[in-house]
Amino acid sequence: MEKISQDCPYPGCFFCVMKEGNPSKRRASILKFFRELPSQDDDGQVLPISGLWNTAMAHPNDPEFIELGIFECMTALIWKGLKNRRWLSHDQNIYIPYYAAHIIGSYTMNMEEFAESAVHAGVVPALVELLRGRLTWVEQRVAVRALGHLATYASTFPAVASHGEILELSIQLAMSSLEIVYSHFYQNADRRLSYHCDLLTRGMGGVEMESRKAEEWASQLQCWSLQLINCFAFKPEFLSTICKPDFLAKLPGMWGGLVNENSPAGIGLLRTICHHKVGKGPVATCPGMIEALCNIARSSDDWQCMAIDCLLWLLQDPTTCHKVIDTAVPALLDLAEISSLGDHKKLGDSIVNALQECIPSLGTARNSVSNRIKDDIEEILTSRQRFKWEKNLPKEDLHIKQAASLVVKLEGNSLFSAGNISGAASKYSEALSLCPMRSKKERVVLFSNRAQCRLLLQQPLAAISDATRALCLHNPVNRHAKSLWRRAQAYDMLGLAKESLLDAILFINECSQSTDPDLSLRQNKVPDYAERLVKKQMREAWLFKEAAIKHGGVHIEGHGGEVYGQESDDSEWETASESDIGNDDRDEMGENDKARYDKPSKGTRAYIQQTDDDA
After folding, report:
1. pLDDT in tens, 144-192
2. 379 vs 292, residue with greater confidence
3. Which residue of 4, 242, 583, 610 shows the fewest CB atoms closer than 10 Å?
4. Residue 62 has pLDDT above 80, yes or no
């Protein structure tokens, strides 16, 4: 089909048909076009298909083309591309199977009745062939997207599930998608298929743009595969296939990356699995799984609640509680004072109730749970009682307790300034025991300051715990800048690049909105110390890193354990007592959070004096 001019000589031209003013003639012509297009071999067929692709994305709920046979037409074109390689390689027909599958996915995205029409039109077998990899990963991406939409609806899920290989193929694709895209496209820029490049950038970018879009599409290929698997995971009969140890172990690491941060990805699937009794056992016994869930539960991203749900459900099930309690309880204790998070109201109360209930379910055996865990749970329960008790105290008594806490905190600040980090940490602990429970701002500062001490004492796990508690107490939740930065450094010490990266990015976001002169971005410039950490962790958390190492790409050496920062300006130094007056947030340790990238060789004292006002 040739490109159409205003005086088009082709009576059946799709673009002329769309301009038809008579509705009945227009519908009849469109119906005829859809019926005849798959059997035609004219040049330029990609032009109307790309036009339909644009229409489907812009108006996915419009029923006109559905009623006139677009699904039958797209299905026939996919089969034609699979069976007739000569036609596929002619002109620009190589684009057509991709556009056809994309059109199917767009029209089935929102409307169940459209999905039913698609199934009746026979789209599923054609999409399965693309999912198998009969063409390339680009077509796999749009096939898994379309199948994921069809599997979402109760009326069309059986048609998807009837093809037994779909679940297995999706699992394989979720695990291998990043490697496939890296090895087949990203790795060799000079051997990239031209139509892949055109689809990725719409012809408007060079090699660098292609590479960025390839990372985004690889993430989508993985996340859409997980979305399809998630539809199966709602049915217990499919969990034995999904809950294979090698697949479960990889799920926490499937996070979408920064290019696809809106997808629940692996943690979303884990939540669905944990919702079923039959799914809890494999998750509870998967090596490293509970530690990974704890890291996500402590995080400040949109999917924190999903990890918390998983941990709570595992604790509340008598068959899995004893398997996870030693690892899960410390993380949940850190979150016990969180108020609300997303749609979860009184989340802290739910956590405390679950902790309280899990002990009796384990029985009385002393070896069923460590004494330390029991003591920690009792401590949080005691703090709840203390909160209720303080409500009945006279205001004068509360003021006395707050003043005593302040005195001890200032002693801690002095010890910190003198280089006695361990002594300062002890003083902050003592101040926390005195501080009224309802004095949340002061307790945020104390937990955050103790986190900094523990960071300097090379105790990253304890630093993460304290920083998390500070973030839970803060209003708004998870938005205390200095605690985010301290936790980012602690995660870095443990080699947890993704967690460190997310906290560092949130820290920069908070700095951009802060009125604190020590945090606000001067001239909209990201602090050097934060930029260095973000760049490092972006390399370490790069979606293609594992594939690059496997296929001979450049291995990026880590620098675990370093504390990132900038040189301080000694003129900014204030004493802790001066900065503590009249500002709830200024009595935290400051410039040490921006400690030098290379630690000084003059000893702890020289290192510590790179603080500003709040020790």
Report:
1. 999 999 999 999 999 999 998 999 999 999 999 999 999 999 998 889 9
2. 292
3. 583
4. yes
DSSP state of 564: P
Q: Residue written as tokens 């000079």?
A: 190
pLDDT band at 17; cut points 50, 70, 90: confident
pTM of the full structure: 0.87
* Terminal-residue alpha carbon distance, the chain: 75
Residue 288 tokens read as 């490293």
In a 10 Å sphere around its CB, with 0-12 CB exposed, 13-18 middle and 19+ buried, how is residue 372 labelled?
Answer: exposed
Give the tens place of pLDDT for each residue, 453-510.
999 999 999 999 999 999 999 999 999 999 999 999 999 999 999 999 999 999 999 9
Structure tokens at 481: 């800048």
Q: Which residues contact 449 (CB under 8 A, 6 or more apart)?
A: 409, 412, 413, 416, 424, 428, 587, 588, 589, 614, 615
- The C-alpha atoms of residue 580 and residue 62 are separated, in whole angstroms, by 62
Cβ atoms of residues 218 and 263 within 8 Å = no
Q: What's the gap between Cα 581 and its chain centre?
A: 39
List the alpha helices (DSSP H) in 371-459: 371-391, 395-417, 421-434, 440-456
Cα separation, 158 vs 151, whole angstroms:
8
Cα separation, 463 vs 447, in Å, equals: 9
Q: Are 439 and 400 in contact (CB under 8 A)?
A: no
Tell me how crowded residue 110 is: count the other CB atoms within 10 A of its CB.
Answer: 12
Highest mean pLDDT pick, 8-17, 124-133, 389-398: 124-133
pLDDT of residue 297: 95
Alpha helices, H only, 234-370:
239-242, 245-250, 265-275, 277-285, 289-298, 304-316, 318-334, 347-361
Q: In angstroms, rounded to a whole number, what is the distance separating the alpha carbons of residues 290 and 297?
A: 10
Cβ proximity of 180 and 137 under 8 Å: yes
Question: Which pLDDT band, with edges at 50, 70 and 90, does 23 fall under?
Answer: confident
Q: Token digits for 156?
A: 């069309």
Amino acid at 31: L
Residue 443 near residue 402 (C-beta atoms within 8 A): no
Give the CA distances from residue 603 to residues 419, 492, 595, in Å, rounded to whole numbers and listed in that order. 9, 22, 13
513 pLDDT band (50/70/90 cuts)? confident
Amino acid at 603: G
Pairs from 361-364 (Cβ < 8 Å, separation ≥ 24): 361/318, 361/321, 362/321, 362/322, 362/325
What Cα–Cα distance (Å) separates residue 115 from each residue in 34, 81, 121, 490?
18, 23, 10, 48
Closest CA to 300 of 464, 514, 536: 464
What is the C-alpha to C-alpha distance for residues 80 and 100, in angstroms, rounded to an integer? 11
With left for phi above 0 and alpha for psi between -120 and 50, is residue 553 left, alpha or beta? beta
- State how far the Cα of 612 lies from the Cα of 449, in Å rounded to an integer: 13
Residue 516: other Cβ atoms inside 10 A:
15
CA angle 174, 135, 179 (to 5 degrees): 35
Question: Residue 344: beta bridge partners?
Answer: 341
Residue of higher predicted confidence among 260 and 579: 260
Which amino acid, 131? L
Question: Hey, is 80 helix, strand or coil?
Answer: helix
